[in-house]
Design a protein that fits this description.
alpha+beta, 3 helices, Chemotaxis protein chec, Chemotaxis phosphatase CheX-like domain-containing protein
Length: 180
């Protein structure tokens, strides 16, 4: 029920959102690799996941970000190590990624809702197949060559979905004063 154009668009919008929101500094690189269907992007037993949902009448998208609570990840996402929580930092960052994707999707689907992020054990990922998704893809994400995350996009259509999204990485501006 989801066209190949829509699948490519969802993948492109996801990658655009990740590249624009996960890196903490402009000079940080963000490599995203699509994994084979049977590959896990992380050791499921030891990792946690942040779940977010974008919903419409036509479909539901689950965005799942996989992370380990290791020192490298903590050092990258939590600037004040003594005060900050890795989970809180990742909840906010993943929420920004989902929000960026939601904002792009609003161009094509005017009535969308987005959940608040929540953390679960990665063991729940095996149950995504129970939703009978029309599109399910996992990714390995590496930021600046050392910080490793995973992500899964699960798309469940309730009606035929076909659209072609503009996934070009345009420079975003926010809050800047424009002079005429």
């Amino acid at each position: 029920m989801i066209s190949s154009n829509a699948q490519a668009s969802i993948e492109g919008l996801f990658m655009k959102a990740v590249r624009s929101r996960l890196p903490q500094e402009a000079e940080d690189t963000c490599d995203i690799v699509l994994l084979a269907r049977d590959e896990n992007s992380m050791n499921v037993r030891d990792s946690n996941v942040v779940f977010l949902t974008i919903s419409s009448i036509q479909f539901r998208i689950l965005l799942v970000f996989h992370f380990d609570e290791d020192e490298r990840t903590r050092g990258y996402f939590v600037k004040d190590v003594e005060e900050g929580s890795l989970r809180d930092a990742l909840l906010e960052t993943c929420n920004l990624c989902c929000g960026a994707m939601n904002q792009e999707l609003l161009r094509y689907f005017p009535d969308l809702g987005m959940s608040t992020p929540y953390v679960l054990s990665a063991r729940c990922l095996s149950y995504l197949e129970e939703l009978k998704p029309d599109y399910l893809a996992s990714y390995a994400i590496t930021i600046s060559g050392s910080v490793k995350l995973g992500a899964t996009v699960c798309f469940c259509a309730h009606a035929p979905v076909d659209f072609i999204a503009d996934v070009n990485m345009a420079e975003e501006t926010s809050g800047e004063l424009e002079l005429f």
